[in-house]
């Protein structure tokens, strides 16, 4: 991605190590052979071999940095016994120190740095000790070599710190991506649950009205044909309304469809209650001036009344009376639905998804809902939905 730091992959790192070691191999052993030839063929070959031993371990510096450092260190110690002249292959030493510091902890890098200072002192004495040298020149030369090793150590520490920082950023980015994905999944699950509740309310209410109207039309068709006609009209109207709401909900599941058909609210309660009065005796008390109720709370209240009336049709029995009250209670909406039927003793068919959905809707707004047998018979639902 843009702005990301450049980093070699495993393949690039391997080729970089091969190129670095091969470059020194092309120069170091041949230069060492040439410098050693001044002391004889045998010494020249021995110095060339030592130079090779100094460079060769660098091929594995990233995988085995500790072993590589000590192999290079021993090869440099052998050089002291053969020749008192610096070799180009000695560039392998700061590279080996860098490697052990870069890819191992301070437990290894600090002793390696200390050994490097010892090596700098020994090398300075070996190279500078002569009748013409002075202690100050030997010390200054040792300090110069030590500074080279110290710079390699510091650069490795900076690289190690930078790599840890970059890795932490990558890990954080991956964690944020995972958390965002989890939040998206939870949001999708919540939306699916909401749609499932909406579908249950729409289908259950629509079918219960259609069943009641169809039964009424069947009984009235012989004695009062006009009543059967009216019932069939109500069935068609209810079916169309349920189909419209189902299309709106299913639109949310289709790609490219926004499903923006208007959702019912408190203004639609009178129509819902008038529809219910065709199959039951119903008294309603709905406060005026509920326009300020948020749309989410209004939709929840509508669905609660709708589900409660559906349960009355399914469980309360014939000749039931129902009381519906919706009013404002401070900064909350209070909703009560009660009937005098036999719903409290009726057998629950299914798994009770209606009441579960009602509780979930109210809980989503931080409200409370109680549902159960009413004093004196019947069933009561009482909900308080704050906003």
Automatic annotation (TrEMBL):
EC numbers, comma separated: 2.7.13.3
Transmembrane regions: 40-60, 66-87, 108-129, 135-156
Pfam families: DUF7134, HATPase_c, HisKA_3
Protein name according to UniProt: histidine kinase
Domain (DUF7134): residue spans on this chain: 14-163
A cellular component term, taken from the record's GO annotations: membrane
GO MF annotation list: ATP binding; phosphorelay sensor kinase activity; protein dimerization activity
Catalytic reactions of this protein: ATP + protein L-histidine = ADP + protein N-phospho-L-histidine
